[in-house]
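Q: A reviewer asked whether we had any structural model of the full assembly, not just the individual parts. We don't, so I'm hoping you can provide one. Inputs are below.
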Amino acid sequence: MDALREIDDPEVPVGIVDLGLIRNVRVEGGLVTVEIAFTSLGCPCRELLMESVRERLLPLPGVEEVRVEEVFHRWSAADISSTGLRVLRAHGIT
Amino acid sequence: MRVDDEELQVRLAGGGMVAGPDDASDGYLKALTHLLVSVADSELFGMPNLFNAVQDAPSASAYLGGMAILQDEVAHALVAYRLLADLGVDTHHLLYERPAAECRHAYSFDIPQHRWAEFAVNSAFLDRAGFHLLGDAYHHTSYAPWRRALAKVHREETFHIRMGERWMRLLGEEDEGRAQVQRAVDWMFLMGLEFFGQPDTLKRNVGQLRYRLRSKSNDELRQDWLDDTAALCHRLGYAVPTHRDDETGRFVVDCPFPADFDEENKRWKLEEGPVGWDSVLARWRRRGPLIDWCLAEIRAGHHEVFGSENGGSARD
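A: Here is a predicted structure for the entire assembly that you could use as a starting point for your response.
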């Protein structure tokens, strides 16, 4: 999860973990599966973010394969962490 | 005269900001207006052209990404035109009445784009040019309303560049895609170099630097863009006429620049050698082949509702 915290959303100045996009992470041997939800069905950054997750996790020790699965969980501003909300407010996004 | 110009320059030299139009001198407002018009025009007037290129998107997801970028650009244009309206500029005239020759957007947007590869390179190259220009303003401009507004713009341009780079890489994984991207690189690379305007030695309008509307000169911004773009192309294996200078570590252009452009075939006439910047300015003033159509597309909705300037208007 710490590695995933380093990935920023391409359009707002908050990481994807603080934005509430990462729904679950499972580690089974060398296989890491990340479940990710997006802010909308038409999110233009889907593939970019899924690629960023793979690129960030693959080099980690012990990781042989990364699967990124989109889950269709409803996302809302309530999913943003308090840190994320603070950063957004500081940038004028409420 | 709102504020004494000499007093303002002392304030700006000390790092002070300008809070709004009533906090500025006439000279400051003139320089600011000049800059914002070219920014606003460049965000908006290329959109119909780029919309065509997005229709060639290879997947639904790519299409959504392309349309999101266009939506962002229209919003960026709105930001700039709104700032202009707050300065008392007649934005209705700018948008719906001004003749083509007075439009100030980058010339490259008047050259037709039909392929997704062109859209990708446009995002990676020309959004990057905008990123450098507006990024400098975001970090350094003395005009507070613009600095606040650029927080959103700067961030979104980052996404546009990343998307463009990604698709330059993905298309390059197959021979036909790579060839299409290379053809786009061939005509857009010098467009990116031109984007930043005349060299510093020829620049007469230095108000933007004097009033700290931006901090870097045309040549400094051009060099920053060149370093980024050349490094990208070298990394992805696309040919650009550059090499890295061993002494400075910075990239140098290896072809005639500026040069004349063959609009019909979308190619630079490098074999004719370099041309003077007066020739470039003349080309920009003539505008490119798509200008009339782009303006008509942007104005169509407005004219449909309110009538054209010739046919009467609900404003009359």
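A: Points you may want to mention in the reply: The beta strands of chain A are 22-28, 31-36, 65-70. Residues 4-74 of chain A form a domain with the GMP Synthetase; Chain A, domain 3 fold (CATH 3.30.300.130).
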